[in-house]
């Protein structure tokens, strides 16, 4: 039993034996402990930093507030970069046998990732758009990161990765090579059609790539601008689908995001 397993099972209550067995078998034995620590730390750090900024925005007196040494506002992305550097470099430097320390560094990397992604819009626009409509992109980026990491934690892997692993550098299997190329092309087409979630999650669930690539593009996507004439039937159908089908779903997503992350200024 390695150090991680010992820490998980030592002095565990009798009622937790089933959960401990599941965790040992599903997470530890399958070498996903570091990924688990990264995932949990990222989710908790996202929740904490969003709680913090909402308290700061509400001018709650007992909360510490922004860090402004010498009048300079240190955004939390700065601390995120530092945490990612420490966690990433230490993860490479620590021997594989030091399971617990590698898991701790993976957790630190997860915290840093959450802090950086939470200000992704600021990095993209090079200005403070945190509470503006553009700032919603940061929440979208974190939701995507959490979703993809969660799929990896559950044991899903991108189909392209599996194909590459099974193919091997010495294998000349033309069929598998074609499958890899087709998967990548379908993913590119799906993304160009403006279907980000379908394109990314479709790498894990290939049927989504087929659906995304062959259905109509979103009205303002690159694919629609290139291939759908403004007065054409496809452009009108795409606009109808956007207004009647997609916008209600987007509104529900925004409601959930604002419940967690706070309301953004729609006039910005």
UniProtKB/TrEMBL annotation:
Name of this protein: Integral membrane protein
Keyword annotations of the record: Membrane, Transmembrane, Transmembrane helix
Species of provenance: Amycolatopsis samaneae
Superkingdom of the source species: Bacteria
Ranges that cross the membrane: 34-53, 74-94, 100-125, 137-154, 199-217
């Amino acid at each position: 039993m390695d150090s991680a397993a010992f820490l998980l099972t030592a002095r565990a209550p009798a009622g937790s034996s089933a959960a401990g067995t599941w965790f040992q078998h599903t997470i530890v034995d399958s070498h996903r402990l570091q990924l688990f620590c990264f995932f949990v730390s990222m989710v908790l750090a996202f929740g904490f930093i969003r709680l913090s900024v909402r308290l700061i925005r509400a001018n709650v007196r007992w909360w510490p507030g922004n860090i402004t040494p010498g009048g300079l506002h240190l955004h939390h992305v700065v601390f995120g970069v530092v945490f990612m550097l420490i966690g990433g470099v230490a993860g490479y430097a620590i021997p594989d046998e030091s399971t617990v320390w590698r898991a701790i560094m993976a957790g630190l990397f997860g915290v840093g990732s959450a802090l950086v992604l939470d200000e992704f819009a600021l990095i993209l626009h090079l200005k403070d758009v945190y509470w503006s409509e553009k700032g919603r992109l940061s929440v979208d980026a974190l939701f995507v990161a959490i979703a993809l990491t969660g799929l990896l934690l559950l044991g899903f892997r991108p189909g392209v990765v599996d194909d590459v692993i099974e193919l091997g550098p010495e294998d000349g299997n033309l069929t598998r090579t074609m499958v890899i190329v087709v998967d990548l092309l379908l993913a590119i087409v799906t993304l160009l059609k403006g279907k980000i979630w379908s394109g990314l999650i479709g790498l894990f669930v290939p049927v989504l790539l087929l659906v995304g690539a062959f259905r109509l593009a979103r009205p303002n996507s690159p694919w629609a601008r290139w291939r759908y004439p403004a007065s054409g039937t496809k452009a009108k159908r795409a606009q109808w689908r956007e207004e009647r089908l997609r916008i209600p779903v987007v509104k529900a997503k925004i409601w959930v995001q604002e419940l967690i992350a706070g309301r953004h200024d729609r006039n910005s």
